[in-house]
Amino acid sequence: MKLFFKLVRLILTPIVLFVDWITTPKGIVRPDAEQAEVDAQTRALTLYHFKSCPFCIKTRRAMKRLSLNIEIRDAQHDPEAREELERGGGQVKVPCLRITDDQGKETWMYESADIISYLQTRFSPETTGGAAKVTDA
């Protein structure tokens, strides 16, 4: 049974990644100064993920739609990233967003829906009052 699921994963992973690549959403376009401010804020964020995890893909697509330059670490293939995730967040579960505040305190947020909601609340043009245009098809 275990071999069956490995085979299914082996077959489906490239397909899932190809479909994700081919259907990648376009991001919003912000004025340069506003995008620079967003980029500065996202330096305090790190996403731990597995490349082919559907919930991670969903989270990365939301980041792309919002034009967020968040550092991404592969907790599946990078032992150092995996150890950071387990040590800091308490478990190896993805997606996980590490949020570092101005005082250096870290918050580890699990669950794709919670991460996406946080990102939309913090960076969506509707909530920030920005003049960004949505270019998503």
The tally of beta strands, per DSSP, is 4
Shape: globular
What is the number of helical segments per DSSP (H or I, 4+ residues)?
A: 6
Task: Kindly name the structural category.
Answer: alpha+beta
CATH A-level architecture? 3-Layer(aba) Sandwich
Strand order of the largest sheet: 2-1-3-4
The number of distinct structural domains comes to 1
Please give the alpha-carbon distance between the first and last residues.
41 Å
| Percentage of residues assigned to helices | 40-55%
Task: Give start-end ranges of low-pLDDT stretches.
Answer: none
Largest sheet: 4 strands, mixed
Structure description:
- The protein has 137 residues and is α+β, with helices and mostly antiparallel strands.
- It has a single domain, classed as Glutaredoxin (3-Layer(aba) Sandwich).
- The chain contains six helices and four strands; from the N terminus they run ααβαβαββαα.
- Strand 3 and strand 4 form a beta hairpin.
- Helix 3 runs parallel beside helix 5.
- The longest helix is centred in the first third of the chain and has 21 residues.
- The mean pLDDT is 90.
What is the compact description of this entry?
This protein is 52% helix and 14% strand.
